[in-house]
Amino acid sequence: MLVLSKPIRAAVCVVVTAVACLGASLAGSIPRSGASTSYFSTLAPGSTLPSDAACAGGVRPAAEQRADNAGANGTVPPPGSFHLAALNSQNGYDNRSQAMEARVTGNYTGTTDEIIQWAACKWGFDEDVVRAIAVAESNWHQSQTGDFTAVASACPPGYTPECPRSFGIHQVTWSSDPVGTFPWSRDSTAFNLDASLMVHRLCYEGYMHWLRDIGYLTYGAGDFWGCVGQWYSGNWHDTAANGYVTTVKGYVSGKPWTQPGFSNVVTTPPPACPCVRYDFEGGSTQGWYRAWGPLSVASVSSPVHSGAGALGLNLTPMGPDWPAVQVSNPPGLASGMVVTYWVYAPATAVLTSVQPYVADSNWNDLLANPIVLLPGWNRLTWTVPPVNGIAGIGLEINDDVGWNGQLTLDSVSW
User: Fold this and answer.
1) CA atoms within 13 A on the CB side of 138
2) pLDDT > 60? residue 38
3) Does the pTM exceed 0.85?
4) Residue closest to 409 by CA, chosen among 322, 295, 333, 318
5) What angle do CA 62, 67, 69 make, to 5 degrees?
6) For the chain, what is the mean pLDDT?
7) For residue 359, what is the enclosing H or E element?
8) How confident is the model at residue 10 (pLDDT cuts 50, 70, 90)?
9) 160 vs 409: which has the higher pLDDT
10) What separation in angstroms does the CA of 6 have from each of 20, 136, 203, 218, 225?
């Protein structure tokens, strides 16, 4: 993601009438001939963003490197064919977000790179960063699907488990903000990028107030790389987000789209799994319950790792204790499989560690190595050891100081 103090293309600006680029005033207009030589760079928060038509006129001709995108590249959603759920102060956004949502149209056709240029221009982002995110998410294939789930309620219309939740060149998740992108996020390359970069711009403008509400007090306008990471992990500068940013920066530096053979890369159908087995949507605990110790579980709507629901783990010890939460008969799980938990810890949490575990058919518990939680969302990955049958899996919380508070569990997958 682009940090304005150290821009990737510091000397190059989007040419838009009376729009400031990284603090420099420019005059002129984007050519309508399609022969522009301007490079689209990042516009600072608060900048006036160019229109669909202005950006269409500024796109430089580019050869098609993904022939399989032809259908989606030529598809524009008809006016009135989609409705994005309002993002406003009632759900943790600045009310100015609604004006940003209204700009999403998907109203452009061209080659894959031309569409990337158009979207980068429209939302005021460095075009190479937009290209690099597309490499990280889909290797530029609009047909790419991801974030598979085995939970029927999490499937988009027309799909049954195991089903994808994310679609397209930037992997827009159908059930995440802004709700209402499907099916155009799947069927139209321009719409997919339009929706993705709108979310990036909301973040960059400082409009995602909910990030501060859940404890990310360093969140604010102007941290572009932080917003690239947030697109991936849903959180602010956590381990997963920072790792993703490193990957994207590598693609920005290496520019694989300019290398021989990039146009010959074909999409590889994603494996059916790992799949999200428990997403805690619809206000359900999905069979998870207190295994032992002073702990209760409940469906919560915040914080969430994905979707709109998660499982709150409420600790109420009188002193040092080691409570646990678990689920019986996890579907399709076997020895040797890799299981992932996403666990949220507030900044106030004072815990020694947590330990995922598996219970064999006789309910003997085999615990993984202890893992120390950091503030925010933590990705816990462990491998099921050799066992004689699996009766359940769970998470033990090593609360050596008797901390009272809530952890959150979400997106359990294997």
Assistant:
1) 26
2) yes
3) no
4) 295
5) 90
6) 87
7) strand 353-360
8) very low
9) 409
10) 17, 22, 19, 19, 11
Residue 330: what pLDDT? 87
> Which residues are within 8 A (CB) of 367 and not within 5 positions of it... i.e. 6 or more apart?
355, 356, 357, 396
* Counts for the chain of helices (H) and strands (E), in that order: 10, 16
Look up tokens 């699907």; give the residue: 145
Helices (H), 165-321: 184-187, 189-205, 209-213, 224-233, 239-254
Distances (CA, A) of 83 to 51, 178, 354: 20, 9, 42
- Share of the chain residues as helix, strand and coil, in percent rounded to the nearest 5: 25, 20, 55
From CA 70, how far away is CA 115, in angstroms rounded?
Answer: 12
Q: How far is residue 400's CA from residue 408's CA, in Å, rounded to a whole number? A: 19
What's the token pair of residue 266?
């074909």
Answer yes or no: is pLDDT of 13 > 60. no
- Amino acid occupying residue 278: Y
pLDDT tens digits, 193-235: 999 999 999 999 999 999 988 788 999 999 999 999 999 988 8
Helix (H, G, I), strand (E, B) or coil at 128: helix
Residue 90: helix, strand or coil by DSSP? helix
Confidence of residue 33 (pLDDT cuts 50, 70, 90): very low
Nearest to 155 by CA among 25, 60, 330, 282: 282
pLDDT of 238 reads 82
Q: Are 5 and 28 in contact (CB under 8 A)?
A: no
Sheet of strand 353-360: strand arrangement:
289-292, 324-328, 390-398, 353-360, 365-367
Q: Which of 58, 45, 231, 53 is nearest to 124 (CA)?
A: 45
Specify the pLDDT at position 234: 85
The most distant pair of C-alpha atoms in the chain lies apart, rounded to whole Å, by 75
Q: Which residue has the tokens 């604010």?
A: 220
Q: CB within 8 A of 243, min separation 6: which ones? A: none
DSSP string, 26-50: ------SSS---PPP-PPPTTPPPP
CB atoms within 10 A of CB 23: 8
State how far the alpha carbon of 87 is from the alpha carbons of 61, 200, 258, in Å: 35, 14, 37
CA dist., res. 304 & res. 233, Å (int): 11
* Distance (Å, whole) CA 301 – CA 204: 24
